[in-house]
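User: Study the fold:
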Amino acid sequence: MLVHTLFDVAAWLCGLLAGVFVLRRYHVASRLRIQGLGLPYVIATAFGTLIGTFGLGTANLSLAGRHGVGRSILGAIIGGIAAVEAYKLVRGVRGSTGMMFVVPLGVGIAIGRIGCFLAGIDDFTYGTPTSLPWAVDFGDGVPRHPVQLYESLSMVAFLIAFLWALSRRPDTIIRCGFYLFALTYGGQRFVWEFLKPYPAVIGPFNLFHIACLALMLYAVAMMRWAEPVHARA
């Protein structure tokens, strides 16, 4: 688990640095015209993220008959969104404030999933058995889908497309960027969940399938009403 922890630290440090570079390179903060956000916004985001991280991860472990405290990046994203949207509703903030998180999340997930892959069978993020030539034996003698790498490569592809679009239509991407990330992450994660050994809760769908659907519905709904961010003074 030390390797996993080191990759987690590296992932979010790299994500932070990449995020700062993109924010400055494309003048994101000035384009968003964010007002009225400060420490309370940060606290709300952190609180929601923590609750979602451990809540969804632990619930999935419990459904799988495993003990302990689980973690989930999907849960972190959904928890953070719920807390931020509640904060924005109270403060009268309209529009997306999540653009600043898109690149850090994309980079963090891309690198962090490599740590999950290297952590092996104990991490419980491995895939179902397969005979495909790129199957990986995580130490239990069973060739499995390396779903961690599928997700990592999906995020790399998203980041390339996202930065390309940002360089050409910055105002549109800055306004809808976080929703595009949420839709993309939820969509690709929904697909990979069919290749994981998690227990189904509704038909063929596991707990993360349901969470992914909720995330995608949120993204589609918000993109329909996306507008530049501003807050009441």
